[in-house]
Amino acid sequence: MLSGTFMGRAAVVITVSLPPFLGRSEAAAFRNQLLVALEQKESIAVECAEAGPFPSLWVQLLHSAALSAKARGLSVTLKAASEECRKSLQAIGFDPARSALVLE
Fold first, then answer.
1. What's the sign of the alpha-carbon dihedral 3, 39, 59, 67?
2. What is the pTM (predicted TM-score) of this model?
3. Residue 94 in contact with residue 58, Cβ under 8 Å?
4. Residue 71 pLDDT exceeds 90
5. Of 10, 15, 68, 67, the residue nearest 43 (C-alpha)
6. Distance between CA atoms of residues 70 and 62, nearest Å
7. pLDDT attached to residue 6
8. According to the model, what pLDDT value does residue 70 have?
9. Whose CA is closest to 89, among 67, 66, 58?
10. For the chain, what is the radius of gyration of the CA atoms?
11. Pick from 54, 99, 36, 87: nearest CA to 14
12. What b/e readout covers 52-72, taking b as 16+ CB neighbours within 10 angstroms?
């Protein structure tokens, strides 16, 4: 994790490099990183310029983290989302206007 500034607050930037298969153990490790950031009252920016499609488990994980962050006055932002990432979000009905997950 890297620290930076995001919307006037310290932010945690998590670099996401998606392997071809994202299993539950990888999701659990990533979830733990998100939980640590939220416990430290940090907004989260997820770098996903090189990301391929997100499996639905990962979209659910990010959405859940975004809801938790929003409840704490924080945010979860996907930075530089690849076209594949955007398509996978659209495929499950992701609506950026209604989601706590911010798509940059």
1. negative
2. 0.76
3. no
4. yes
5. 10
6. 12
7. 47
8. 93
9. 58
10. 13
11. 36
12. bbbbeebbebbbebbeebeee
